[in-house]
Amino acid sequence: MQVLKTIEELQKIRKNIVGTVGFVPTMGALHNGHISLIKQARSKNDVVIVSIFVNPTQFLPGEDLDAYPRKDEADKKICQMCKVDYVFMPEISTMYGKEEVLIKAPNKSYILEGKTRPGHFDGVLRVVLKLFNLTQPTNAYFGKKDAQQLSLIMQMVKDLFLPINIVPCEIIREDDGLALSSRNIYLDATQRKDALLISKSLYMAGSLIASGERNINAVENKLYSIMQTLDVEYVAIVDREFNELKVVEPKNTIILVVARFGNTRLLDNIWL
User: ∠110-37-252 over CA atoms, to 5°?
Assistant: First the structure.
């Protein structure tokens, strides 16, 4: 495994790669969710590249950029264990100049996650496009947990005619159902226990729909009733392109929940 720090190193390596390239972009603090993405990439591609970069342009003023967990040495060991070929770990000054051409996310980026974090997805698409241009992957792997992000990246690839196959990957959970997240380490014992109500509400909503319920309000009421003790930021039931639904559409519905635990926001969802 080789660790690359500069654009020049990565471009030189990429020029000489023959075969398929699987790419997994991350912000580090790798957990089993990331590992599942890397393993999928490893099983399907000749060469695997992982990037570890805490991207400042997707953090808004007052958000947890400085506090975001950084575990570079542990992350490198995990990548080595997963038989990654190249790890790209650039500095901020390597990735960004003073005045740049900007990427503008579409209007649907200003709902849900984007409503409370305006401009967040502009920063996400900006860094992902840079990383795509540098790594030129055959396949790129993203988790379904960040569903709105995944939808926007898929749209960017389509709109900009990028020759990249985006592979959506299932959410990885703890044994008790909590979706894995780098932010879970911020939870105290009580918050950790309370957070289980998020996945419980999603499973119960899924069961309700499986039994034939198609009314959006009925499904939302079920979600809120289970999470009534939580600080729920939003519940949303949308199609896979993030349009609002009037009725539940089996095989084309995503149910999303975001709840706050002190300063920590946890996202979760279920794809039907």
Answer: 50
Is domain 182-271 annotated with CATH 3.30.1300.10?
yes
Q: Are 138 and 125 in contact (CB under 8 A)?
A: no
Confidence of residue 63 (pLDDT cuts 50, 70, 90): confident
Phi, psi of 179 (to 5 degrees): -65, 135
Domain map of the chain by residue range?
Answer: 2-169, 182-271
CA-to-CA separations, 103 to 51, 131, 228, in angstroms, rounded: 20, 13, 38
DSSP state of 112: T
Q: How would CATH label the architecture of 2-169? A: 3-Layer(aba) Sandwich (3.40)
**Average confidence (pLDDT) over 152-161:** 97
- Paired sense of beta strands 47-52 and 165-169, if any: unpaired
Is residue 31 flagged as an active site residue?
A: no
Instruction: Give the integer Cα–Cα distance in Å for 32 and 135.
Output: 23
Task: Using DSSP bridges, classify how beta strands 264-271 and 254-261 pair: parallel, antiparallel or unpaired.
Answer: antiparallel
- Of the residues 31, 34, 76, 126, only one is catalytic, namely 34
pLDDT at res. 212: 94
pLDDT at position 65: 82
Percent above pLDDT 90 for the chain: 86
- Count of positions (residues) in the chain: 272
pLDDT single digits (tens) 117-153: 899 999 999 999 999 999 999 999 999 999 999 999 9
Terminal Cα-to-Cα distance of the chain (whole angstroms): 38
